[in-house]
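Query structure, 358 tokens:
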């Protein structure tokens, strides 16, 4: 199947509530990930596969996407934008872009999935099975946390099952779909619709041929802070593929204009954004440091995200924390286990200072 005859639709209109407070100031697909807006990694995979026409279904912070990607020519793409006044859900977002489609095959992507799945192979599988709809499925070690999607011996989807303690399959919906154009007309219009919960089960019940494409490549939904931190680190270390990063992979990635003092240790896939300053004796392990943040002497930051322009005072300890843009964390503060600090919040110096005089 010729990828240039396929439209890509990327859903990027969600509010990203699970990633607050980072998504107070930016849409989730625009958050810097390994130093680039997350969506850049997905768009570069789409371009690499040979797909040319992309429609972004936007709503929340819609203008920021067009400001960053424009007409798409820098990535070798033709990008168009469709804005929902109110988020219409994943199904509504797909139905909304129909007037912009140019081709009979439509590949739809959740805009927050980091994956190494081979898009051309999925297109070939859709063609060979003569499906009306193909879903990318991944196998997970603990499927109890997800709805599961069992398939028969021919790869045909048998059911869409809600979360259960004893799922009959370890296959889950991985958030990339190929639709034959005419199937899209069956999505209800003019109201909020979930493609996962409503459209797919209804299509199956109507006898539409729905197939699964199962593969074992890298896959991560970046919707939670834990997954966002892991995904960013995996990109930096080269465990997750991204044509946008080329060969720049290693234990850490320090962007132009950042300064890292001698004696600072950067490991675990840490990324340091443009203009950030890392003080002496700082240890960053799996940390995501946005542009212009300052981490002062002797602080330790593990598996945490530090928002743009935030300041972490000396000898602080942050583990599994999110610090909003422009927040100011005092010396020796400890923020652990999922602590979240809202943008601009000031936390004064804290803790006990031990010195040789005591
Ligand atoms: P949470 O609020 O944290 O659940 O995040 P989310 O709003 O992004 O929802 P979810 O992770 O389920 O969304 C999966 C993908 O669909 C993301 O890329 C979203 O941007 C996108 N999406 C979710 N809701 C809408 C919508 O109403 N319209 C459009 N166009 N896209 C949506």
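Result returned for the query:
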């Amino acid at each position: 199947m010729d990828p240039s005859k396929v439209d890509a639709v990327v859903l990027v209109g969600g509010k990203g509530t699970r990633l607050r407070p980072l998504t107070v100031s930016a849409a989730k697909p625009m958050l810097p990930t390994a130093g680039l807006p997350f969506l850049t990694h997905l768009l570069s995979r789409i371009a690499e596969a040979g797909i040319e026409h992309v429609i972004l279904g936007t709503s929340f912070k819609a203008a920021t996407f067009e400001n960053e990607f424009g007409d798409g020519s820098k990535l070798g793409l033709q990008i168009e934008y469709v804005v929902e006044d109110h988020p219409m859900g994943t199904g509504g977002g797909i139905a909304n872009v129909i007037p912009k489609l140019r081709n009979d095959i439509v590949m739809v992507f959740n805009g927050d999935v980091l994956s190494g799945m081979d898009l051309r192979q999925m297109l070939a599988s859709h063609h060979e099975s003569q499906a009306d709809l193909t879903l990318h499925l991944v196998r997970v070690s603990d499927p109890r946390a997800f709805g599961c999607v069992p398939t028969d011996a021919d790869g045909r989807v048998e059911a869409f099952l809600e979360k259960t303690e004893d799922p009959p399959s370890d296959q889950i919906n991985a958030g990339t779909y190929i639709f034959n154009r005419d199937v899209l007309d069956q999505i209800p219009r003019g109201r909020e619709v979930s493609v996962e919960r409503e459209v797919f089960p209804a299509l199956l019940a109507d006898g539409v041929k729905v197939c699964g494409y199962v593969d074992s490549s890298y896959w991560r939904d970046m919707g939670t802070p834990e997954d966002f931190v892991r995904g960013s680190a995996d990109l930096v270390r080269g465990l997750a593929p991204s044509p946008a990063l080329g060969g720049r992979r290693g234990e850490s990635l320090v962007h132009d204009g950042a300064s890292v003092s001698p004696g600072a240790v950067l490991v675990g896939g840490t990324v340091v954004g443009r203009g950030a300053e890392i003080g002496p004796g700082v240890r960053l392990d799996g940390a995501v440091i946005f542009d212009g943040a300052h981490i002062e002497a002797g602080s330790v930051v593990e598996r945490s995200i530090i928002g743009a322009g935030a300041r972490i005072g000396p000898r602080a300890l942050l583990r599994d924390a999110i610090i909003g843009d422009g927040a100011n964390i005092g010396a020796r503060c400890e923020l652990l286990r999922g602590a979240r600090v809202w943008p601009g919040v000031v936390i004064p110096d804290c803790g006990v200072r031990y010195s040789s005089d005591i």
